[in-house]
Amino acid sequence: MYWLCLELFESSVTAWLAVAIIAISHFQIVYAQEARPYILFVMLILLSSAVLLRGRRLKTNSSWTIYAVTLVVEFYSNLKLIFEYGRVKGWKFSLILTRFVGTVFPRSKK
To answer: What are phi and psi of 60, to 5 degrees?
Structure first.
């Protein structure tokens, strides 16, 4: 969670605040005490989101390779995460695509 917030907001204070809120959240405490595989899915989604943001920031092949590996591990752990990927990360892909299309096919200014 710290790394994801650090990649999103580029502020250590904000990242620590988010970690503190998660640490004292009643829902997270109760949920952490359950031995369910769902926590693996949450961890993998957080990890791949942070790696995606890191890849967009650094723009290196190794960053995108690590992102691809995290996606493969996500999909290997549970195929239902393919739908979660579409729901949670679909907007990120659409933002990247619209940014790419905007640079390749610039809109005419009126």
So the answer is: -115, 155
